[in-house]
Amino acid sequence: MKLINKIAGVGVTLTVAIVAAAVLLLGHPTETAEAGALGSIELSCTPATQAAAIGNQVTCSFRFDEAATYAAAEDVDGVSVTLTTTLGTWAANGATSITFDCGNVGSVVADTCEADTLTFLLDVGTATGTNTVVISAGTAVDTFAVSLTAAAGSGAADSISYFTKDKDAIGYATTGFAPINQATTIRFRVLDVNGLGLNDQLVTFSTDNGVLDASGGACTGTLSSTLTASTAAYSVYQGTSSIELCAKSTAGVGVTATVTATVVSKPTLTADTTVSISKKPASADISVTLDGTVISVEVFQDGLPAPDDTDIRFQVVPTTDAAITAPCVALHDGLAESEIAVASGKTVTLLVTATESATSCAGVPVRGYGSAQVQVSADDVTAADDAAADDAAAEATPATAPEPPAGGQSQVVMTQDDLTVFLGANTWVESVTFFDFGEQKYLFCHIDGAPAFAVDTCTLSAGSILGLTAK
Fold first, then answer.
1. Cystine design at 78: which of 35, 56, 235, 411 (Cβ 3.0–4.6 Å)?
2. Is the pLDDT score of 439 beyond 80?
3. Separation between Cα atoms, residue 217 and residue 211, nearest integer Å
4. How many Cβ atoms sit within 10 Å of the Cβ of residue 61?
5. What's residue 21's pLDDT?
6. How far, in whole angstroms, is CA 81 from its chain's centroid?
7. Separation between Cα atoms, residue 321 and residue 331, nearest integer Å
8. Measured between alpha carbons, how far is 160 from 181 in angstroms, rounded to an integer?
C-alpha cells in the first residue's frame, strides 16, 4: 500500500459532509483558491508526546497557508488531500493513509476545504518511536513528528542491561592535551518481567577507572568511583538510568574503564560496559592506508583508540593536483575515513594530522598531536579502486528482512550501506527508521511515496539496524 495514495473512507465522507453542511449554514466566500494556486499547507498534532497504548489518541489539525494570489486562510478547492502516518492508524478509517477531495474548481456547491482548521484523530497503537505524520495537497507537503513513548512497567525489577553511551573513547587531560571529550554519558535500562521499562528504581554505579558524576554533571567538585541514581524515561525509553564517566583519576590514563550497574532492590541484577580512557596521541600512533579512493586512518596508542571527536584533517600537496571529499573528519572509536581524487598522471603528498578544536572540525585547530604522510599517484588510486569496486560488487548482496503482515513491524541488520539497494530487495517495506546514537533520536530514512524533503538524511553502513514497517 503506497503511503501517498487515495483512499475513500466512510469516516472521511462523513467528515467532509459535516463540514459542507456547516459551510451552507454559516455562509461561504464567493471565490475559492484553486489547487494550482495553493501556497502551502500547515500540519500540527497534539500532544507531541504520547504513550503508545491502546485507546490513546493524537489530534492532528491542518490549514492552508496564504497563496500569492489569495488572502490568508482562503478556502481551497479542487485539490486532493492525503494524511499518512507511519505508526498507528486514523480513527476515521482504521488505515495508515486517509484521502479526501476539496471539491471541484469553479463548483457552485459549497464542498471546499474550509479555511478554518480541519482535525483528524490518530489511534497511536502500541509501537514506540518517532512517528512522522505527512500531509500532502497538490504540490504542498508538511510533516509533524510525534514521539510515542513506551508504557511504563510495574512490579519488581526483572533485568538490567547496558543501553547506550555517548562516546566510546574519551581522553584524560594532561599538560598539552585537552581532549574535546573528557567524559561520556552511559545509560542502563531496568525492565520488569514483561520487558517494559521500570521507573523509580535505584541503581548503583561503580567504575574501576575514572570517576562518576550525575547525568548532565560537569565532572567538577568532589567525585568518587561509586554513585546511585534512579531510573526514569529517556526519550521514548522508560526505565533508563544515566551517569557521567569522567576521565579524572591519578592512575586512569591509557586504560579501559569498566562501569558496572547494580539494581539496589535486587543486587543479583547487574550489567556493565567499557570505555577507553586514552593517552595523548602522537605521530607514531597515526596509521594511514589507501584502498581505492578511500583513505582509512587509525589513531591508537597501546591498543586504545584516541578520544572520540579528535579532528583528523586531510591535505594534499600540491593542492591543484588532487581533491579531498572531506578535509576534516571526527574520529570515532579510533577510526576515520575520507576519499581522494588525483588528477591523471599526477602524484601528490597526502598529509594527515590529528588535531583539537574548540568544536570538532570547526574553525582553526587549537593544538596538534602529530601527523603522517603518504605519496599517492593517479595510477595507484585508479588500479586499487577498480579492485575495490570488484570486491564491493561481490559483497553488496542486500539483507533480506523478515516480512510481517501489513502494517506490522520488523528489523534487519544491513549487509551494505545503500538503502536504495536494500529497498529494491525488500519491496514490501513502507517506512524505514534508524536510531542515530550521535543525535540520540530516531530518523525516518524512507517513507514510501513521500517526497525527498519529507524524510531524514541517514548515514548508514553495514551493521546498521533498521526498523521496518510493512505496506
1. 35
2. no
3. 12
4. 15
5. 32
6. 28
7. 26
8. 27
240: left (phi over 0), alpha (psi -120 to 50) or beta: beta
Cross-strand partners of 211:
246
Q: How far is CA 465 from CA 52, 162, 414, in A?
A: 22, 17, 6
Cell of 238: 522508560
Percent of the chain exceeding pLDDT 70 equals 80
* Rounded Cα gap, residues 400 and 415, in angstroms: 9
Q: Judge whether 401 and 455 are in contact, CB under 8 Å.
A: no
176's grid cell: 598539552
> Would you say the pTM of this structure is higher than 0.70?
no
Backbone φ and ψ for 12, nearest 5 degrees, come out as -70, -45
pLDDT value for 13? 34
Whether the per-residue pLDDT at 37 is higher than 80: the answer is no
